[in-house]
Amino acid sequence: MSEQYKNVVIGSGEAGKFLAWALARQGEPSIVVERAIVGGACPTVACLPSKNVIYSAKVASLVEHATRYGISLTDSKLDMAGVRRRKKEMIDGLMELHAKLFHDSGAELLMGHAQFTEPKTVQVALNAGGTRTLRGERIFIAVGTRAFVPNLPGMAEAQPMTHVEALDLDRLPAHLVILGGGYVGLEFAQALRRFGSRVTILQRGAQLLEREDAEFAEMISQILQDDGIEILLNTELVSVAGRSGQGVRLTVRSGGAERTIEASDLLVATGRTPNTDRLGVELGGVALDARGYVRVNERLETTAPDVWAMGECAGSPQFTHVSYDDCRVVLANLSGGARTTRNRLIPYCLFTDPELAHVGLTEKEAREQGIPYRVCQLPMAAIMRTRTHGESRGLAKALIGADDRILGFTALGVEASELMTAVEVAILGRLPYTVFREGIFAHPTTGEGLTALFAGAPTPVR
Fold first, then answer.
1. Could you say which of 68, 111, 116, 315 is the most buried, measured as most Cβ atoms within 10 Å of its Cβ?
2. What pLDDT does 460 receive?
3. What pLDDT score does 443 carry?
4. What Cα–Cα distance (Å) separates residue 461 from each residue in 78, 260, 367, 370, 422?
């Protein structure tokens, strides 16, 4: 017999948990089915743990270069078990917080794997054994994605790390090869290098961070190379032999020639794949696209009545903050609103040291779309706060439209994410760039650099 609920939410990640908590607080009987990780990937195996480890790596770098800051250290050593312990302490605290929030909201949390058996009905194989059948007036799918591992000869046998295993290391890889030059790959490359690993990045394309303007990709490459990281562009992995952690031999191809790279460990960071393959969505009348993502409209409604999908499994940009906004889109529409996913302004950050942050259009995108723009640029060294950090590498760049509104912003440098957030507010408020040019900002802050950046805006429109 099926149990009746107003709301059945599949997945307790960012979108699923906030939706369930909100609906339960409104007095609607709501249950969340979670297969493995309460709260989803962000607080346990992704965003927050990775930034925790990245900060430990920054401390290691500061210790290594302590004499630059007038500090003499006679004895220091890396303790990867301690790095892991610090990360686990943070995760444990976040898990306690999630348990409390579920309890206080009134939403029921059920640990198990859900599969559709018919429209609006799922059977849950409980982690503790047995099954329960749930029927909801409304169903919400928020099952997220997982790391994609390419099907190459020897890859499965090599058992490479993904970001999940890399965050749980209590040892230091002697030589780590990272497959992929995107955000995940670069953050781990710098962190493990700063801990002391030899690191090689294999990137199939002609530049790291393929969606970014070339000057930022080149600067990131130089920063990583300054850290001692080897970067192989236009390089394709052909096959793998051995086992990650014990020793691997990688056959790679570049420029038509093949060669072998010997390493201790392999980390795959080549994108994500949706967790929809074991949901039995066809029995629920829910259609998937060719890549396995749930097909949704701009209101995040699926092809089945009263069934929504949110977050990464719905093909939304793969950021926690976007998944949270998906939740807000659905909540607004459930209460009669008209909010959609159309034309959202989505910021993102790369948390290397220094940071890369972006919002709006890149110059490449503006050019491809035929949008008139002006460019203003400022070396981060021109912002005095960066001199106090001893880290003045990088660049800030903004695109200004014909109406003087800001079209896009990218910064690589100290506190770049905070600069980006300020510019994003101006874009959302449809303010002209002159608010920064004419504003008075405290000295010495990184934010005052926005005055100098926009003071240099050229008159002609490209």
1. 116
2. 67
3. 98
4. 52, 49, 12, 12, 24
Q: Which amino acid is at 325?
A: D
Catalytic site includes residue 443: yes
Query: Beta strand 198-202 with 374-379: parallel, antiparallel or unpaired?
Result: unpaired
**Closest Cα to residue 189, out of 229, 148, 149?**
229
Residue 265's alpha-carbon distances to 81, 262, 352, 363, 461, in angstroms, are 18, 9, 21, 37, 50
Query: What gap in Å lies between CA 43 and CA 329, rounded to an integer?
Result: 22
Question: Mapped to the 3 state alphabet, what secondary structure does the chain carry?
Answer: CCEEEEEEEECCCHHHHHHHHHHHHCCCCEEEEECCCCCCCHHHHCHHHHHHHHHHHHHHHHHHCHHHHCCCCCCCCCCHHHHHHHHHHHHHHHHHHHHHHHHHHCCEEEEEEEEEEECCEEEEEECCCCEEEEEEEEEEECCCEEECCCCCCCHHHHCCECHHHHCCCCCCCCEEEEECCCHHHHHHHHHHHHHCCEEEEECCCCCCCCCCCHHHHHHHHHHHHHCCCEEECCCEEEEEEEECCCEEEEEEEECCEEEEEEECEEEECCCEEECCCCCCHHHHCCCECCCCCECCCCCCECCCCCEEECHHHHCCCCCHHHHHHHHHHHHHHHCCCCCCCCCCCCCEEECCCCEEEEEECCHHHHHHCCCCCEEEEEEHHHCHHHHHHCCCCCEEEEEECCCCEEEEEEEEECCHHHHHHHHHHHHHCCCECHHHHHCCCCCCCCCCHHHHHHHCCCCCCC
How many CB atoms are located within 10 Å of the residue 197 CB? 22
Q: What is the pLDDT of residue 458?
A: 85
Pairing of strands 131-141, 145-147: unpaired
Q: State the pLDDT at residue 461.
A: 66
The answer to whether 132 and 48 have CB atoms below 8 angstroms apart is: no
Distance CA 102, CA 250 (A): 46
- The residue type at 98: H
Q: What is the pLDDT of residue 1?
A: 86
Angle between helices 80-105 and 47-64 (to 10 degrees): 150
Pairing of the two strands 3-10 and 131-141: parallel
Q: Around Cβ 418, how many Cβ atoms within 10 Å? A: 15
Structure tokens at 12: 């307790």
Pick out the chain residues at pLDDT < 70.
Answer: 460-462
Distance CA 304, CA 122 (A): 14
